Amino acid sequence: MTGKRNAAQTEEFSAAEIGALAHLYRGEVYRSTVWRTRLDTTTNWSVVTLGVALSITFSSPDASPLPLVLVGVLILFFLALEARRYRFFNVWRARARWIETHFYVPMLIDGDLHTEDDWQTILARDYRAPQYHVSYLTAVARRVRSNYLWILLIQALAYIGKLLVHPAPVRDWTEFVGRADIGPVSGLVVLGLGAVYILTWAGLALWVTHADTRRSKVRGRGISMG
Questions:
Q1: How many helices (H) and strands (E) does the chain have?
Q2: In this structure, are residues 148 and 197 in contact, taking their beta carbons and an 8 Å threshold?
Q3: Per-residue pLDDT tens for 76-89?
Q4: Angle at 210 between CA 205 and CA 215, to 5 degrees
Q5: CB 183 within 8 A of CB 66
Q6: In the chain, where are the structural domains located?
Q7: How far apart are CA 14 and CA 3, in angstroms?
Q8: Short-list 134, 160, 166, 153, CA closest to 59
Q9: What phi, psi does 114 have (nearest 5°)?
């Protein structure tokens, strides 16, 4: 860092203020860690319930594939809960990252790397009027991209595998569709809804990847914490 930058920072922050910022940063890291653990908890619940459904469905050749369909409702419930938790986690994570980028980075390297001169004001506004940094849809899509898309794909593949091999190897397409019947609901309808189900989540994952690329460019200009 140049002497001019050092002088400016000395006038701006006293030793007590720097200490307070350090404690603030530690608090934000702690809160983000706690909420990150909560995200892992709901993901674990989804994996466990899917495992139970797999055990029931493949316990015998005559076992119904219906548990693999019904477990999807529970997985979606856990996804909805996890997306809500992610929005809280993202607030603490964004604040910690903001302090790292605008306060610690200029202290650690030689050069003028303040990406936003008025970064303290943006941080103060976020504390004065807290708000989520991402929408609920974005939170859902990010969790799908990170974890749930793979869980849902395993669910779909297990369901198809069950129809193919139990109670005996399937002989033709008509038999395969017939095995997917659920009461009065045609197997063709069930399979069609399943395809829409998977494609919707895959589309969300692709959409949020593109949206996050645009958001990263905004963050790179130092005008947004999210």
A1: 9, 0
A2: no
A3: 999 999 999 999 99
A4: 115
A5: no
A6: 3-220
A7: 17
A8: 166
A9: -70, 105
